[in-house]
């Protein structure tokens, strides 16, 4: 078979997506590409691993040619909070990286998974039951790159027949690899601090409602969409996707059910609060359900229980 490439493979989603895809397609058939961060032993030893810079066309072209890549899961990106402190870097990595991936896909006829985000929405977007097709005036640099990325992916499909597909991920919660500089990171950090210190200081206000999802569902979504029957896809890119939504105060309460003396404090970061306030409370993901059978396995309670169990074991070993 033609091989699969995962960029951003050392990141929060990429590190787990690589292992998930290796289990589906065979270890040697999934090539992991990181930038500079050292990969885990598991990632490095279970299949091919390379360092590349997605911003360099020769790097992207080289790895696609070297391994005879047929599908690219392009996870390499700068997240929202880092994107606001380094907007030029965010544009460079997110846009030039995606452009290089699209060009390689055009030349070598690869399919491409393009992750977008709740960040592709903005303050004028309807916040509740946010429709699939609606106003997208994103006002963070990360959001600007996500809107442009959605359009670029649609363009490469229509103009060059590149098989592009993608979702708008909500905040992703996981225990394997920490997220790197996003606005929804609090929903991961809180579990580490709750187990280690029974206390967490949240950088978002207690009533900030955002869509979220547990990692196993995020991985399955990417795989299921790329395996879906294309004739059913009316939208190809940027499917709204969510599993549940909550506020920091609600998540803290759920954790208290297991750790009764857990204490939540707040020290609001105006930059990340501003970003979160421009994102929806809850997206309508019925198009993903209808067009390729999206159905999350984890609700909020199941996620909290599993996170606390898995992370307690992990942190106990460290
Ligand atoms: N989780 C991401 C972030 O907060 C959103 O795509 O940046």
Write the layout of secondary structure elements.
Blueprint (H helix, E strand, L loop, with lengths): L2 E5 L4 H14 L4 E5 L6 H5 L3 E3 L5 H11 L1 E6 L5 H6 L1 H22 L2 E3 L2 E2 L10 E3 L10 H20 L3 E2 L1 E3 L1 E3 L12 H12 L1 E4 L7 E5 H13 L11 E2 L3 E3 L1 H9 L6 E4 L3 H8 L4 E2 L2 H7 L7 H18 L1
Parallel strand pairs: 1-2, 1-4, 2-3, 4-5, 5-8, 6-9, 7-16, 9-13, 10-12, 11-15
Antiparallel strand pairs: 12-14
Helix pairs in contact: 1-8, 3-5, 5-6, 7-9, 7-12
Bound molecules: serine.
Structural summary, described in words:
The protein has 318 residues and is α/β, with parallel strands linked by helices. The strands form five sheets. It has a six-stranded parallel beta sheet, sandwiched between helices. Helix 3 (57-67) runs parallel beside helix 5 (87-108), helix 7 packs parallel to helix 9 (248-256) and helix 7 packs across helix 12 (300-317). Helix 1 (12-25) links the parallel strand 1 (3-7) and strand 2 (30-34). The model has no long low-confidence stretch (mean pLDDT 97). It has helices spanning 12-25, 41-45, 57-67, 80-85, 87-108, 141-160, 186-197, 215-227, 248-256, 270-277, 286-292, 300-317, and strands at 3-7, 30-34, 49-51, 69-74, 111-113, 116-117, 128-130, 164-165, 167-169, 171-173, 199-202, 210-214, 239-240, 244-246, 263-266, 282-283. Bound molecules: serine.
Descriptive labels:
single chain, 318 residues, alpha/beta, six-stranded parallel sheet, 12 helices, binds serine
Rg over C-alpha atoms, rounded to the nearest angstrom: 19 Å
- Please identify the structural class as seen in this structure: alpha/beta
Strand order of the largest sheet: 3-2-1-4-5-8
State the end-to-end distance.
39 Å
Beta-strand content: 15-25%
The ligands found in this model are: serine
Count of β-strands? 16
List the uncertain runs.
none
Largest sheet: 6 strands, parallel
